[in-house]
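We emphasize that the prediction below concerns an isolated chain of 928 residues; any contacts that depend on oligomerization or on bound cofactors are therefore not represented. The input was used exactly as deposited, without trimming of termini.
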Amino acid sequence: MHKFHGSILRAALMASVSLSVASIASAQTADAPVAANQADEADQAIVVTGIRASLASAAKMKRDSVLIVDSITAEDVGKLPDVSIADSLARLPGVTAQRLEGRDQRLSIRGLGPDFSTTLLNGREQVTVGDNRGVEYDQYPSEFFQNVNVYKSTDASLIAAGISGTVDLRMLRPLDKNDRIIAVSLRGQMNGMNKLNPDGERYGYRASATYVDQYADDTLGLAIGFAASQTPSQNERFNAWGYPTDASGNLIIGGAKPYVQSNLLKRYGAVGTLEWQPSDNFHSTFDVLYSHFEEEQRLRGIEFPLVWGANVGVSDVTVDNGFVTGATFSNVYGVQRNDYNKRTADTISLGWNNQFSLNDALRLNVDASWSRAKRTDFLLETYSGTGYLRSGVPDSVRVDRQSNGLFKIVPTIDYTNTGIISLTDPNGWGYNGTTAVVQAGFLNRPKFIDDMRSLRMNLNGDIEGSLFSNWEIGGNYSRRKKTSAFTSFFLCPTGGTDCTIAGGTPGSAPVPSEALLGSNVSLGYLGVPAMLTLNPLYLYDNVLDAVYDNRPQSLVRDNFVKEDVFTGYAKMTMDGELGGKPLKGAFGVQVIHSRQRSVGTISSFSNGVVTVVPASGKASYTDFLPSAQISVELEPGFFVKLGAAQAMVRPRLDQERVNQEFSFDPSKIGLGSDPMNSPFSSNGGNTNLRPYQSTNIDLSVERYFRNGGYVSLSGYFKNLTDFVDPNNSIAYDFSSLLPALPVDVRNEIIANGGAIGLLKAPANNGRGTIMGVEGTASLPFKLFSESLDGFGLFASGSYTHSEVKYGSNPTDTVTLPGLSKWVASGTAYFERNGFQARVSYRYRSSFLGEVAGLSAAPTFRTAKAEGILDAQIGYEFQSGPLTGLSILLQGKNLTDQPFVTYQNDDPRQVIDYQRYGRDYYLGLTYKF
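Result of the prediction step, given as a token string:
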């Protein structure tokens, strides 16, 4: 496998201002967070007790700094402004979040998705419970963090920075507090939709407790916290298989899968920090974070094979502008689904930082950390219908498109009738690679372990009598290993062997009464009155046999990827005057040497049979990343800031795997010498992949008002190289496999030149640019009139333009996952005398979202633009016997905005439609 390169460049002009967030603000720090101990001292010194103090604190940080960083600050101990970390991050300028299961999850920063950013905890890179590198923020209870920073520019001391940005989660430091603090919080939750499954939940809770104290004359500090939550959600879902064309050339729905989903996320976490500073010459901090979560999903629905079904008839067709808006489908064999998914994950993170002052001008810092995440999934599907392989009662289904893009689906048979419904494989889809399987269900059990350990040392000293005020040199070593293991099983009626028809497996089994839940699920939101509602775990434990899935494509998925990274850096910091103007800045360089290795399997061809053999691969390389930032105060309160840096981010871990899946398609024998027509092909990863590279340029102009508040306008440009092309294929000579074929087949392939096939593997052959602008306004209305004291607005908006092309298709511009051209968010607030109220709105234009496809594999689809409205109102008792008690009422997704995806740039071709409903929260917090 090899690297490839390509190029394109275009410019654009943009501007925007709009509405944005409570309790957030842009902030820029003169120095990046070099390690856990190096949190900005000004930030840690400010006691934040409300939105106005939080915004004022962030404005000061922004004014005094060089690096561009947007921040969320806790309004009090254990009180970030939103339901989750991701909710708050999604309100920052230029930051968006994609909703998964109704919760904000996948973050995009300045038009680049989670694959292009990194997440730190107290300045240290973290592992994730996700499939790749992108952090799932549900693994972190928001109550544990004092502030969260999103760095959009970088300097040499920021290790493991991303191309788009770096998210740094900061825990509370007990010695920064002056007194003992005890805070407890309890919040109830209710979903606006009734539970959609009889075994689902509608109500949830969230509880936390925090203790902070100082000992030994304030030289020893302790902070501990505990959090528990049970978060339910409901989801009315519709999924279309696709839209082929009929005989008249009109687009028509190929099949549909409507279902209802009830989720319950349980999470328990604990955090602790021990801080010791016996003198000015030594400061030690040890912190630990543990989080355990379990998510259960109950999904029930019916798959309807329509025009793509076998021998399905179509009549009574209505057409609008080349799109079939209504039709009756006959001879339909629906597949009822009663599914159950469970995800269990544990995350632990340890960090120990030690700061030594060697003399008045020289300091040494040593930082060690370890983090580990383990996740196990149990993904169970069970199927029922009227008979095996379309042998039962067929259905006639009327389908009509609605104004919201959904289809009303009205069947004629009763899907709750156990007299005609049995456990079976209604369409005979089961196939184990060699023969038919009675697939009445399927089980996937993937497991992931992500382990990272690192050691960092740096030395820094002061410089006297110069524009340069400080120097710093340092090094960091990290080792990361991510292991992915996949196991899957066919499920079939008991009797026979191997779940095969040839092995005597029955085509169906009756529905046991013990599996009935007593009440049937309605799909009435789409026109299906009811479906048979079963307990899938009972079926799995008592009714169905499980047979190991040993298809070659299932056996070549296991792998691990290991990365050893050595980073050295040097930095010079400026803080002085030039030409009578205050000037700050930093110049530096990182040198990064990487060694990456993957061990897995590849499939091969021997004696006419596909076999699986072990494989391994490794690569090493070195990167140089220079950086420079300056900030000039041209007049009091008016700043111009400029940054330039070479940045990089590593590819997805599944793209670095060594695995290759071999395929042999006999139907292509004799089709010619075009590699696309060869019977041989292979698909997999590339251990030799290099990181994405980007040359980043940032410019910011900021105006601060004497009585508080500011406005700013910033622009950014990223020149992307070594961009990973996931569609890359190269011609590969499979001649070594020919001897395994029969002589006549071998000779025919040779005669037609069919031994040259396609080997698909990602490569660094893409190039492109991203550019955009962000506008921000933080305006306390006291600026305009004393009578408006307490009212305010924080508003931001951004526009991003991208032009990226892959080497495999250099004529077409690709759509980057997670990029919305237009993003706006904002909060109007009032806060005074203990009373506070705020309304927050965020908007993003259409984008390419990552969703779960076939067998839960990630796939990308265009998501519609969406606007989400949240609100909250509360009161804190500031005197009397209830002092310290606060009450908060919150509403989330008050516009009941659905998540909708479509294909082929045609909004009529809706693929996913998910409606989550509104969520309401009522909480009490008491601070001793």
